[in-house]
């Protein structure tokens, strides 16, 4: 989707303390060989705050940086991949109360790790039709995996799960980056990759692992070995097509992209699934940040973009490609152009 006159006015993240992966191996949480192969140095782990509170803290930073007032906002979109609290409770309205505290709509976006990027597309479309004076949408995301229901270290061999909160202020006035295009492409023939052969009912045991992707992947490997070939589909082809389409809508060639921000997988997975198919060297990615946080679900792209902007690794005129993924399978991406540096005044406003 080509976008006109839509900006990112603010970005903020909340990152809890990082646990060194060496400590995880010594504690028996993770295998030494897996740690060595991953390239992951540490993983952010939250020991006290629930996910919505992390989202609130990230949002307060993004709001201060944005220059927008609460009355400017048309809506709030909140996203996460795991439980946000008690079932049936509205985490998004908790976030709304403790950030904008205005009677606007607050909606939860459930789109796996692609949640923030999907919410960005929704916000851009909403702002194109929003009434005068409603010039912004607040996007928030958060997850914590500090629960016996998830083994953050072994949930999948492609990543280690980190805890974080993040926020973006999407504006039709101005911002530190201009959104040029955003979109996604899915191949539902690959939805089987993230389930196993059980009937899809609610959990039947209180301590059943709820995000054990590795056992589901192992299930399909066994079925394949037995001669039961699952439906086809190529992730690399899907990702390439989604990116090329969005780049064309943004009027940008792949050679014009200064940096790329992806989901924070292990190094091998990051290169095989995203960087190599798209023609990027790892030095143009945010691996140096990702290896210190782990895969923070919906928050990876905002974390990476904030990192590039606040450290001065991207400057006005630079174009950044954001690429995310979610079970389904679906690949989403956005192209943004940096329009302003982080100034002392902006940084002080967010302190």
TrEMBL record:
Taxonomic lineage from the root: Bacteria, Bacillati, Actinomycetota, Actinomycetes, Kitasatosporales
Name of a matching Pfam family: ACP_syn_III_C
CDD domains on file: init_cond_enzymes (cd00827)
All residue ranges annotated as the Beta-ketoacyl-[acyl-carrier-protein] synthase III C-terminal domain in the record: 247-338
Limits of the Beta-ketoacyl-[acyl-carrier-protein] synthase III N-terminal domain: 108-180
Keyword set, alphabetical order: Acyltransferase, Cytoplasm, Transferase
Source superkingdom: Bacteria
Alphabetized InterPro entries for the sequence: ACP_syn_III_C, ACP_syn_III_N, Thiolase-like
Gene3D superfamilies, sorted: 3.40.47.10
The keyword Transferase appears for this protein: yes
Official protein name in the record: Ketoacyl-ACP synthase III family protein
Annotated TM spans: none
